[in-house]
Design goal:
Helix content is 13%, strand content 31%. With 359 residues, it is of the alpha/beta class.
Length: 359
């Protein structure tokens, strides 16, 4: 589901996202994520993405429109004035039941609230539609679940400063400034300069993220920098520790993304039918598997990991983020009590892979 680097970057989207320099005076374009032309540089060369709206600030006249083009897996959420964004996950009203590990033992979270994607983010969404906004009621795009979702056009009918959010990535936000008729607004050329400057700054940040090292005893699940820039990898990618070592797998402070750190059978990117592959697939399905979402073990005492944990060497932090506004954890700890080579993946971004060798 939340494959930030791989999602909705098709050629059709590129045709729609020419950027502010191509927009008319009455309609400006905002990319919901990196502009398509910049994605190869960030994704392939820097292993990164940017959880940001491009441009972050858009200024128009009252009665003008902003065209939101989905260039990554993001939403836009304009709450009613003073409101907060919607959470990505929310309780379904049911309890988890019958959730067993590979050894047939019930997981600890049986009886806990089942969670799913917040219903307002699901279909039908607003893609391909034109709507109006004046700050009095929420306008929510929904998730871009189609391969080539069309743009959404929002017409602003009241002057003001309107902050909007991405519900997938806590902390990702943009601003639309709506001025009265006759007031000066930036030209298309000025908007293009703003966009280019935002991209240059993001590229400079991304270039330095993969070389940063976390403190001893810590594995960073991704790395982040200002402006929503995210590196998609484990840091360190590979390390060797002694039996009995405890490692903390944590979100990078300041990250806008969501990740897991998960060990178990299979490569979820290359082996979709494996144990981890099937868990990863739940993030692209309407119903979430609680085994993927919840931590595999209560946080205390610190869980241990061996090749036979939960019957198949399974351990999972559950879904993590770095936001204080959600109930999700920001880290998980595990003690390695048996020698071996342990492969870790993010179930949400299965191309993220790290290795811990225990001797």
């Amino acid at each position: 589901m939340v494959r930030a680097i791989a999602a909705v970057t098709m050629t059709a989207a590129a045709a729609l996202v020419a950027g502010p320099a191509m927009a008319s005076a009455a309609t400006k374009t905002v990319n919901m994520g990196l502009p398509v032309k910049a994605q190869k540089t960030f994704n392939e060369q820097l292993g990164s993405d940017v959880n940001a709206f491009f441009p972050r600030v858009t200024t128009i006249h009252v009665g003008d429109s902003v065209r939101f083009a989905p260039t990554g897996f993001h939403t836009f959420d304009f709450p009613a004035s003073g409101g907060q964004p919607l959470p990505l996950f929310s309780p379904t009203g049911q309890k988890v039941s019958g959730s067993l590990d590979a050894a047939g033992t019930p997981f600890w979270f049986n009886g806990q609230d089942a969670v799913g994607f917040t219903p307002a983010l699901g279909p039908p969404g607003l893609f391909g539609k034109s709507v109006k906004y004046n700050g009095s009621a929420r306008v929510e795009s929904g998730l871009p679940l189609a391969n080539n979702p069309p743009v959404i056009t929002v017409r602003f009918t009241k002057p003001g400063r309107y902050t909007y959010y991405c519900d997938v990535h806590p902390g990702m936000k943009g601003l639309v400034i709506v001025k009265p008729k006759g007031r000066k607004v930036p030209s298309a050329r000025a908007d293009a300069r703003r966009l280019a400057r935002q991209l240059r700054n993001a590229k400079r940040v991304a270039a330095g993220l993969s070389g940063q090292a976390p403190p001893s005893g810590t594995v960073d699940v991704g790395n982040s920098g200002p402006g929503g820039v995210e590196y998609f990898g484990f840091l360190p990618q590979t390390q060797t520790v002694s039996t009995g070592t405890t490692l903390v797998f944590r979100m990078s402070p300041g990250s806008y993304d969501v990740h897991t750190a998960t060990a178990g059978p299979g490569d979820p990117e290359q082996q979709p039918d494996s144990y981890l592959g099937k868990l990863a697939a739940t993030f692209e399905a309407p119903v979430l598997d609680p085994i993927a979402v919840y931590p595999s073990d209560p946080p205390t005492p610190t869980p241990t990991l061996t090749p036979t944990t939960h019957g198949n060497g399974f351990w999972n932090t559950g879904v993590m983020d770095a936001s204080s506004a959600t109930a999700l954890p920001s880290q998980g700890s595990v003690t390695f009590t048996a020698p071996g080579q342990y492969e870790f993946y993010c179930l949400i971004h299965p191309f993220m892979h790290g290795t811990v060798v225990v001797r």
